Amino acid sequence: MFSLKRFVESNSLRSIPSNYICQKNEDDDSMLYLYDAQNIPIIDLSNLISSHLDDRFNEIQKLGDACRDWGFFMLINHGVSEKLREEVLRASQCFFDLRGEEKKDYVGENVFDPIRCGTSFNVKVDKTLYWRDCLKCYVHPHFHAPSKPLGFSETLEEYVTKINEVIGELLKGISLSLGLEENYIHKSMNIESGSQLLVINYYPPCPKPELVMGLPAHTDHGLLTILIQNEFGGLQIEHDGKWIPVNPLPNSFLINTGDHLEILTNGKYKSVVHRAVVMNKKAARISVATAYGPTLDTIVRPAPELLTKDNPITYRGIKYREYIQLQQSQQLDRKSCLDRIRI
Ligand SMILES: O=C(O)CCC(=O)C(=O)O
Ligand SMILES: [Fe+2]
């Protein structure tokens, strides 16, 4: 199994292989960089679940605004310990440090394989290769994770159990922010048995980081993605036509809206376009993203309660499973997958 990490380490690379060199388009350069990252919304989970109704109401309002105006926010006071988050990142490093043969069982071909290890995005369709290795595990409704290194699976299981509670509260808040009943998204999207995909991204150090891309501009499938990273930055979100580098607040989660929240809300809450650039010549960046979706057989369509004469239906319904297949079978390209189901 090819691993970019191993390739970089074994070659003490000085130049970048040409198939990794990313053609930056002019658009991109004119969008770089607006450093107003301090405006990124911050949501306080302790307010969202507060018994003080005023605090709760205000935070729900802020959450709705963040989803509508940014599709992205940092979550603080979420109750998940820093120790556990650090342990997830440390164990992830140990997984990528395993020898190739210890990972060979996870060379998945199929997008629905419970555990898959790979490189770039989809080497069958990528025109340029991306500067990352990754591990993808479906962790819900059934939990899957590699059995090595020792303790890795247990750490991931503890982590996903904890963030499940966090996402549950966020989805309730989002339902309320839309004027819907608190459990609307839970019920209509079958969240209790919904699909959760954990993706660990490993971006090795690169001698010429400006020439490569970790992950190109894309949106995530699912309703919400929750992300943590090690100490190195690289995530950028598109906002008002500019790329905004994200520097997370200490101990915060980075949350972004996904395509299925855009579909469900008939475009009110847009899924945010984002990318991961590579910035580090000496050290690897690790990020752990967990995408929350409905069950694979749920047909996601705009909520009828949100449609009016002035807000007619904009997306056709599509099974979550088919949408994932569609997204994984083509190049990652901004919102191209969502565009295919726009009416
Ligand atoms: O590494 C990051 O910060 C972003 C990862 C990402 O966008 C993804 O896994 O979908
Ligand atoms: Fe993403």
Automatic annotation (TrEMBL):
Protein origin, superkingdom: Eukaryota
Instruction: Report the residue ranges that make up the Fe2OG dioxygenase domain in this protein.
Output: 193-294
Q: Which UniProt keywords apply?
A: Iron, Metal-binding, Oxidoreductase, Vitamin C
| InterPro entries in the cross-refs | DIOX_N (IPR026992), IPNS-like_FE2OG_OXY (IPR044861), IPNS-like_sf (IPR027443), Oxoglu/Fe-dep_dioxygenase_dom (IPR005123), Plant_2OG-oxidoreductases (IPR050295)
Q: Which Pfam families does the record cross-reference, listed alphabetically?
A: 2OG-FeII_Oxy, DIOX_N
What GO molecular functions are on record for this protein?
A: L-ascorbic acid binding; metal ion binding; oxidoreductase activity
> Which family does the entry's similarity section mention?
Belongs to the iron/ascorbate-dependent oxidoreductase family.
Q: What is this protein called?
A: Protein DMR6-LIKE OXYGENASE 2-like
